[in-house]
């Protein structure tokens, strides 16, 4: 038998029967039958068998499936010991979707794709051995975390660990351009190179001069940002890893840039084909001033980046628009355009209804909470990475006169339900941080020197979480309730505390800190003030019961950590970020990221296969009442949950908002007496609510239309980890 000639695929039919109620009940047993049938009829007969572990590794190395170096770091007796441990854990997939996704997308196959060379246990072992880098103790710890699904490395890391023919371990990249042709050219080259390597690429265009701005004093010569956007979209389409995947990118523009209307217009369905963007994602950086002008129903001025840079001596993105707004308005040397703030707000909402774009980055909110010296000017393809950058200058030969600092994303995720069962929460987090540290230490993107510089100086990582809604349902908490918000805050406080402990420990071991640590709020201790002034211990009986007393750091613990960080520093500039987990959450048999489920029985359209159904984790008559669809939920509850987590996360979160074209009655009080159709006003109110709650970013707006379609549901496969 082979994977190309499967004769019995009845497991798909069994899985599809989940969607056919029997006596008013969901026949969940059909999913277990589908799972067993898949393992029996698809996996077992098509898994290459070996007589011994040594024979298996010799085969994989000699046939260039595995790298030899990471295996040679260990005595083979230890590898056998690690495998014995993994086998004794008796791992089993809990759903058909989990097993199907793993074997379809993650398991190593023969070069002809005709047979499997790995089980889940094998992939875990490869990850543990590779990311432990020869450290036997760390390898065992990593194996323990991954096999019990407390830790899930990002897709690029989990997929590529140990493979000889592989891509990079990082998930995505952030670069920016400054206002000259040399840097624009360098940016396009960087986009080509990074898209070839893999992962989504975020690009900040806010520094580019607007359409009509002068070039060498020739009035009206500049074409603005839209032509550059088209060049970038074509670059991503071309550089797509030999057709294996679509190149993916997002461009960011300041809401105060004069080209903001044409920027948004390029994504509209009825845009002229010469400017219309079909695959490039859009994001807007929004300072506090925009919200102030909206509230006042005032005019707003859009400022020429060319003139602002000449007046302030730094690129447009690095000028504090909120602080300098009145001065910019009064400065006659700066060209400006006047529009109504609420008109622009409506344009943003119109496009979000139509396409799900643009992403919104509340840039002043991000910078206010930023403990690092420098400025955050943009985000990534999934809006959760928020790190400081510095601009670059390029000469006529495309050499750097001044090398800037850009960003690569090294991501991983905790599985909340399984982490809450961890024997030692702090030890688990340290193990994860060390695995992610391997990725940042060994990432060397030399084709884009600004990315290389940023990674080498920052050592940044992004540890996040998945499975929040399934945890709530399992423990009979309604999503968005007071106790669910309280739990979320405490969980992410713990993630923050223990990731700080781990980073401090690594800094002490290596006698090394991230670049410019001495200028950070960590170095002077002010970062820790809020944890010393306020207790984040559980208050409600329900939440107290979920956390053991020894899990919660005391004021004395925080004070000790503060002193240790001030003395020895931190290795990582950034530590936490919540990505919009995709396929990898299915393998973990949990709900994606922090957002609520869409359906109790989720329907997935798989290419060449058809529909596959995935029952929500822990779904039963007991938990059904706690599984409200995101489309039937007040989005302020989602924002409240994310805001509770955001307080403790040094970067951002991929917050998606879900609305129906026809809003269910009673969901939003401002709809009473008005149309039940979703309007731009609804989105305006929710965006302002998120801003007031301190949320740094909003990812997609997903709309479920009256004809059962979803708008704004595309995702970057690299960033959804």
Verbal overview:
This is Ribonucleoside-diphosphate reductase. Pfam families: Ribonuc_red_lgC, Ribonuc_red_lgN, RNR_N. Residues 558-580 form the Ribonucleotide reductase large subunit domain. Provides the precursors necessary for DNA synthesis. Catalyzes the biosynthesis of deoxyribonucleotides from the corresponding ribonucleotides. InterPro entries: NrdE_NrdA_C, RNR_1b_NrdE, RNR_lg_C, RNR_lsu_N, RNR_N, RNR_R1-su_N, Rrm1. By secondary structure, the chain is an alpha/beta fold. The chain has a domain at 172-407: Anaerobic Ribonucleotide-triphosphate Reductase Large Chain (Alpha-Beta Barrel), CATH 3.20.70.20. Helices cover 41% and strands 12% of the residues. The chain has a seven-stranded mixed beta sheet with strand order 13-2-3-4-5-8-19. Strand 2, helix 10 and strand 3 form a beta-alpha-beta unit. The longest helix is centred in the last third of the chain and has 29 residues, at 482-510. The protein is globular, with a radius of gyration of 25 Å. The chain starts with 9 loop residues before the first helix and ends in a 10-residue tail after the last strand.
Gross morphology is globular
Radius of gyration: 25 Å
With strands numbered from the N-terminus, the spatial order across the biggest sheet is 13-2-3-4-5-8-19
N/C terminus separation: 32 Å
Overall average residue pLDDT:
94
| Helix content class | 40-55%
Total beta strand runs: 21
Unreliable runs, pLDDT <50, ≥5 residues? 716-721
The largest β sheet comes out as: 7 strands, mixed
Sheet-strand content, in percent, reads 5-15%
Number of helices: 28
The CATH C-level name of the domain at 172-407 is Alpha Beta
CATH topology of the domain at 172-407: Anaerobic Ribonucleotide-triphosphate Reductase Large Chain
